C-alpha cells in the first residue's frame, strides 16, 4: 500500500504565501507523475499543477505565474509553493502520485486526504 500525507495548508490573507508538501510512502518501486488538484465547495476537483519524474511541469491557467510545483525524488515528496494568493484559491488541495509497486506492474494513481487552504480578503 501507498500513503500520501499532505501538510502546509491553513488560513492566509490575500496576497500572502503558503507552501504545501506531500510525502509519499509505502510499497514504492518508482513514481511517475505527481501533482496537485483542488476542490472548492460545490465544485468539481480541478487540476492545479503536475510534474513528471524528469521535472517537466504543467499548470492551470488560473495559477500560472503564482504557483510553483517541485519535487524531491529522493524523498518521494512533491511541493506546491503558492504566492500572491487570492480568495478564489480557497479549496481543499489534494496531492496525487502515480506509483509503480514493482518493475512487473504498471502505475497506480494514489491520492492524499486533502488539506484545506482558506484565503481571506
Report on this model:
- By secondary structure, this protein is mainly β.
- 0% of the residues lie in helices and 60% in strands.
- The protein has no helices and 11 strands.
- The chain has strands spanning 2-7, 10-13, 18-26, 30-39, 45-51, 57-59, 67-72, 77-82, 91-100, 107-111, 115-120.
- Strands 2, 4, 5, 6, 9, 10 and 11 form a 7-stranded mixed sheet that branches. Strands 1-3-8-7 form a 4-stranded antiparallel sheet, with no helix packed on it.
- A hairpin with a 5-residue loop joins strand 4 (30-39) and strand 5 (45-51).
- 31% of the residues are buried.
- The mean pLDDT is 96.
Secondary structure elements and pairings:
Elements lengths: L1 E6 L2 E4 L4 E9 L3 E10 L5 E7 L5 E3 L7 E6 L4 E6 L8 E10 L6 E5 L3 E6 L1
Parallel strand pairs: 2-11
Antiparallel strand pairs: 1-3, 3-8, 4-5, 4-9, 5-6, 7-8, 9-10, 9-11
